[in-house]
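User: Before I run my own analysis I want an independent prediction to cross-check against. Here's the chain; please return only the structure tokens and, at the end, one sentence I can use as a sanity check.
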Amino acid sequence: MEEKKLIVTFGTTAGAMAMEKACREEGVPGRLIPVPRSITAGCGMCWMAPPEARPAVEELMIRRRLQTEGLYELLLRR
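Assistant: Structure tokens:
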């Protein structure tokens, strides 16, 4: 079964860890996972969240000045 997910990629592991910390502190859903093979990212880690969390994720990234490489919506297998 495939599910649509929001994927946020980072150039560094520190960026991915900062995203995880910020999301945990503010209750934004998601978790760190290895970057899916269909995309590439500098550090190999990404933040995966439900697509409906996109507004909260984008607002958090702007407010916290988190450095990201890209935002994607992908169909991922469970």
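Sanity check: The beta strands are 2-9, 31-34, 45-49, 70-77.
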